[in-house]
Amino acid sequence: MSQENPSPAQRVFISYAHGDDDFQDRVLALADRLRDPYRVNAELDQYHQSVPKGWPTWMEDEIEASEFVLVICTETYLRRFRKREVDGKGLGATWEGAIITQELYDGQGRNEKFIPVLLSRDDMVYIPTILRAFDHYDVSTDAGYETLLRRLKKKPYTLKPDLAQFEPELPPRQRKQSFSPSQPLWSALPARNIWFKG
User: Fold this and answer.
1) Measured between alpha carbons, how far is 164 from 168 in angstroms, rounded to an integer?
2) What is the pTM of this model?
3) 148 burial class (0-12, 13-18, 19+ CB within 10 angstroms)?
């Protein structure tokens, strides 16, 4: 990739439920890896000490402005997404889950934006029901990470060939006829005995 003319950066928001320090570091590592070297403009709350507009407005604005939202699926995230968390706990993930649910509802279930992401294969059971119909990506493997990256960068493994500029001729198949074209069709039919009852 040329440094003088880099490709445009895709804007991506990462939605997740806070966990222990190890989990926070894994989410941060995913965002860092997307940003450098692959120029995915990944946004994450950990990059900010505070936001002047307040966290609820910031989260809503980021989801709205992003081309993709990576939903980090965990047991805690699913509980908060489904509004089954203890009152007053995990408000950020609960709020983001409500926004995502509303956007999918407004889109009548069509979805190109919200992408379920797994940090472990075991987390597949924690994909929210509303997202289970769509492709998910297990980034705990290099292959899974590359597949996600290709989705974000719109660089599929297999390119569809362009349509040909000129279409080759497809002549009709030659018919095999058992009668002369100058003969009436009925004359080539076998004769039948017809009895008339008087």
Assistant:
1) 9
2) 0.82
3) buried
* Tokens describing residue 182: 């100058």
Q: Retrieve residue 108's tokens.
A: 């009548």
Instruction: Provide the β-strand partners of residue 92.
Output: none
Per-residue confidence in pLDDT tens, the chain, 198 aa: 445 556 678 999 999 999 999 999 999 999 999 999 999 999 999 999 999 999 999 999 999 999 999 999 999 999 999 999 988 889 999 999 999 999 999 999 999 999 999 999 999 999 999 999 999 999 999 999 999 999 999 999 999 999 999 999 999 988 877 656 666 655 555 656 555 555
Spatial separation of the C-alpha atoms in residues 194 and 131, rounded to whole Å = 72
Burial 89-125 (b: 16+ CB within 10 A, else e): ebebbbbbbebbbeebeeeeeebebbbbbbbeeebee
Question: Could you identify the residue written with the tokens 């941060």?
Answer: 28
What is the secondary structure of 22-87 as a DSSP string?
HHHHHHHHHHHHHHTTT-EEEE-GGG-S--TT-HHHHHHHHHHH-SEEEEE--HHHHHHHTT-SPT
